[in-house]
Amino acid sequence: MSNSNVLYQHGTLALLVPGLLDGTLTMKDLLSHGDTGIGTGEGLDGELIILDGTPYQVDSKGNVNLVDSEFTLPFANSHFADYAEMLEVEDIKRDDLQKQISETAASNNTFYSVKITGTFKNMKTRAVQKSSQPYKSLAETAEKQSIFTKDSVEGTLLSYYSPQLFDGAAVGGFHSHFMSDEHDFGGHILSFESVTGVVSFQQFDSLEQHLPTDNKDYMQHDFSQDNILDDVHNAEG
Amino acid sequence: MSNSNVLYQHGTLALLVPGLLDGTLTMKDLLSHGDTGIGTGEGLDGELIILDGTPYQVDSKGNVNLVDSEFTLPFANSHFADYAEMLEVEDIKRDDLQKQISETAASNNTFYSVKITGTFKNMKTRAVQKSSQPYKSLAETAEKQSIFTKDSVEGTLLSYYSPQLFDGAAVGGFHSHFMSDEHDFGGHILSFESVTGVVSFQQFDSLEQHLPTDNKDYMQHDFSQDNILDDVHNAEG
């Protein structure tokens, strides 16, 4: 079923916090729910981005790798691309851009995706480093992340917006990954100064939230002991 | 698509709080996502329960009405029944039963449904009273709800359990409606003393969360001003 009104999500942001990082979905399964997406690998193995059906991983050394279909993920989003052009922007600052997208979209109470292709100034990304069992908590992993910067880079920003009501299950607000046109730079976006390019927009009316119910560690975990929102906001900021 | 691993939800618990009560889904559409479910009508028009494909409404006078396919709802759940018998219970108190279900299910971190058929002692239900535009807030409606009691009644309890992480979008914990075998008594369950009967269980691995994106009032509402969790816990308790 190819339904461009649905955002698919496997796992929750919350399960990353205590380090429930088993890969519980294959890339093949994720791609069956979309040709566009973001995620991370088992043990927080880098930052993933799927563009036009091709999944790329930015690992903690900054290398960009193609991801095979048996690669597994604890947390990911995907959807079938059906974007419409929303804005053309010229050297717009990141905050101003987010405000303009938010106002134009008028979709704060539903899920949507934004794709921006263009030239980004002072792009700063991070990639997390894979841990093995016993997995590190999100806070521990965040301490060991690698940070990458580019003064100017052409590429694609892929972002998902989730209503604040779903913060903790999803990332409340925008969650953005990046891939350069040369496929030599990317990751989870920490910041950029400005961008010149084209902003596209796709709104969803449904979230398909899939949970790793076959994973014992997930099913048996007591989430009431975790400080979910503080930890994810510190790590995802 | 009839997938018994999916719990469908239209709307959110949160949108009831400020009174965004337009009916934004027809009963026909809800039934296309399940033969079993619960919900409320436009303007908080009573308490609904769907059993074996038949939707019933308990209105604020306590009458049980059959619901037609064009009836609209602001908030509802449905799923395709595929229950397995979990427990036989005899005169078990409600708290003990919830504890026993919770321990046997070991599914606190995913969505599931419980169906209990049997004889309930001191069943206490409520039904909310329909308001028209401008709709009342959930707190105002809760003040005007009707309460119904039965010393002993045979019937079916239908409950959905949602993980605490989804509280506010869904009802965190159990959300239970009731219908008597005679189809003359029911509603949203406030309490019961004990039950003798059969407990059935069905676990989901996915929540399909559908939002009323065609509804202007919903899309333009500023939820940051609402006291969502306090208000829903007071009203749904």
Automatic annotation (TrEMBL), chains A, B:
Keyword terms of this UniProt record: Acetoin biosynthesis, Decarboxylase, Lyase
Plastid listed as a keyword: no
GO biological process per UniProt: acetoin biosynthetic process
Enzyme Commission number, as recorded: 4.1.1.5
Pfam hit, one: AAL_decarboxy
GO molecular function: acetolactate decarboxylase activity
Catalytic activity: (2S)-2-acetolactate + H(+) = (R)-acetoin + CO2
Pathway(s) the chain acts in: Polyol metabolism; (R,R)-butane-2,3-diol biosynthesis; (R,R)-butane-2,3-diol from pyruvate: step 2/3
CDD domains from the UniProt entry: acetolactate_decarboxylase
Name listed for the protein in its UniProt record: Alpha-acetolactate decarboxylase
